[in-house]
Task: structure prediction
Amino acid sequence: MARKKIALIGSGMIGGTLAHIAAREELGDVVLFDIAEGLPQGKALDLAESTPVYNASVSLKGANDYADIKGADVCIVTAGVARKPGMSRDDLLGINLKVMKAVGEGLKANCPDAFVICITNPLDAMVWALQQFSGFKTNKVVGMAGVLDSSRFAYFLSEKTGVSVADIHAWTLAGHGDDMVPMVRHSTVGGLPLPELVKQGWMTQADLDGIVDRTRKGGGEIVALLKTGSAYYAPAESAISMAKAYLNDQKRVLPVAAWCQGEYGLDGMYVGVPAVLGAGGAEKVVEFDLNDAERAMFAKSVTSVQGLIAACKEIDGSLA
Ligand code: APR
Result:
């Protein structure tokens, strides 16, 4: 069987990290694409020169021409601009929407059967725009945000409780903004739901509230520290876990920006929900039971995403 082909659209901080992990894990041959000349070629060559050290039998290539991603099995999209301190993800909308148009057309012309994972922010609106511009089936286009937000949530819970991250299952739903919804009742440490941990004295309610708040603002915390850009290691690892679920038909339930038509009462939109990822892409949305408070938080976040989609439609009439 021929090797799989992984196309990385955007070869910046996340794109380069994705290429590194994809090569080390031998997911397939990697094409790094970017509009910047030399950047994808330089990163691809540097990474290719490292493969003899760890014996990875994959090729890495840099490209400025969409023809080079022809036939890709998986495309991970990070093209666009990242946040700087003082910016919200929504501030990126105007610039990144134009980028999604170019990327959508490039994917449509060259790899119409690919599974597409969008990382570019503002995530929920950009994954929607990418699906619209590419015309791909909604199950083959997803957004990466929930795996990252949930991983941050799990890490903070591990730090507080001293329990291994391996035994923590944390979930965040809804949009990838500061009004995301960390699912306190559905997340567990060693099988115990978080409210039970508070009852048993593992942490106070104030500790738990602090962790929820830090999770919501997790991206901004990294931006403030780095000063020149946004997070890239954890986003890259998160997208790779999604790519592996597709390539290996793992049927993993991961929180991703998936198309909801009826689920969670939504009438055709992308938002963060748990979904089964396998060879069919996003095969099924998993519906958590939400109580009134959770439903209200989810609705607030959905309203923000809908506002961003409306803004996209205003900027680009072809989306209306
Ligand atoms: N086509 C292809 N690549 C593009 C285009 C385009 N039209 N426009 C910009 N790029 C490239 C840039 O040249 C740059 O190399 O996208 C890359 C983005 O890389 P970084 O600026 O390093 O950003 P990164 O940290 O990788 O984040 C990318 O993911 O998490 C989100 O908010 C983040 O939207 C941002 C994206």
Remarks:
- The pocket of adenosine-5-diphosphoribose is lined by residues 9-15, 34-36, 39, 78-83, 92, 96, 99, 102, 119-121, 229-230, 232, 235 (CB under 6 Å).
- The chain has a mean pLDDT of 96.
